Amino acid sequence: MEISLRNQIAIVTGASSGIGTGIAKSLASAGATVIVNHSSERSTDDAKAVVKEITDAGGKGITYQCDVSKEDQVVKMFQDVVAEFGTVDILVNNAGIQKDAKFTEMTLDQWNAVIGVNLTGQFLCAREAIKEFLRRGIDPSRSVACGKIIHISSVHEVIPWAGHANYAASKGAIRMLMQTLAQEYGADKIRVNSICPGAIQTPINTNAWSTQEAMNSLLTLIPYNRIGQPQDIGNLAVFLASDASDYITGASIFIDGGMTTFESFSTGG
Ligand code: BGC
Q: Which domain holds residue 162?
């Protein structure tokens, strides 16, 4: 089975760090030209470093700053990418944040910030991507599908998470967004799926792995007994973006070392 994303243009949001970086590098190594999106001036150097890694390895990519929670910026990003590269084939809706708080202390700003990036951002990017997929139509020299969207969700689309109500609510909603889009655009040959990562070693969850004690406690939640790496997610993203997964749409794929088997039930219940 050959897995190639040659001739395809991929936008990966939030690609200047963490899981997004892993996905951007994996898509580029499979042959896609990758738009390494980052949200702010502050993350420019990190995004440039990702593109350098991609080009040093023989791949193609550019950086693009855009806050995915802002409609005008998302519309402009898609216009600019289409103007420069002709179209977009793959969207990886990865940008995501946490603003954790006990529920009774959660501010409206914390709620809105998380919903704004994690959910509204995925809506805006998916809408612009689908418009572009439909404008271009199917081009068999690129892919048998008209376009592919991969939402980065979380195990918290099904595992409730005390102290993180805004985050868990955003991820639960992504499931229905993803499935609705898969249903609405299936006949147009647009594939829409979610990747649901468990604990992946990135800056978003440093406090879960940066001390031995924290790591030991984390591992009690993971039957496979290791923390995940961005590359684990990158491998799955390449498969889901490629024609090798052409019959997969409307699926949430959990990649979590078994976290969703609820290991705490292994000796009780
Ligand atoms: C969160 C991480 C967390 C993991 C498992 C992810 O979606 O962003 O902070 O470690 O879920 O709980």
A: 9-256
214 Cβ closer than 6 Å to some ligand 1 atom: no
Cβ pair 25, 1 in contact under 8 A: no
Ligand 1 site-directed mutation target among 94, 200, 227, most atoms within 8 Å of CB:
200
Q: What is the pLDDT of residue 264?
A: 86
Query: 33 or 265: whose pLDDT is higher?
Result: 33
Please, are residues 100 and 163 in contact by the beta-carbon 8 Å criterion? yes
167 an active-site residue? Answer: yes
Q: How far is CA 7 from the centre of its chain?
A: 21
Number of domains in the chain: 1
Instruction: Name the residue at shortest CA distance from atom 9 of ligand 1.
Output: 205
Pairing of β 33-38 and β 9-12: parallel
In a domain, 266, yes or no: no
d(C-alpha 97, C-alpha 117), whole Å: 7
* Residue 179 located in a structural domain: yes
Please report whether residue 69 resides in a domain: yes
Q: What is the pTM of this model?
A: 0.98
Q: How far apart are CA 53 and CA 258, in angstroms?
A: 31
Pocket flag, ligand 1, residue 205 (CB < 6 Å): yes
Per-residue pLDDT for 227 more than 90? yes
Q: What is the pLDDT of residues 43-56, one digit of tens each?
A: 999 999 999 999 99
In short, whether 155's Cβ falls inside 6 Å of ligand 1 is yes
Q: How far is the CA of 199 from the centre of ligand 1 (A)?
A: 5
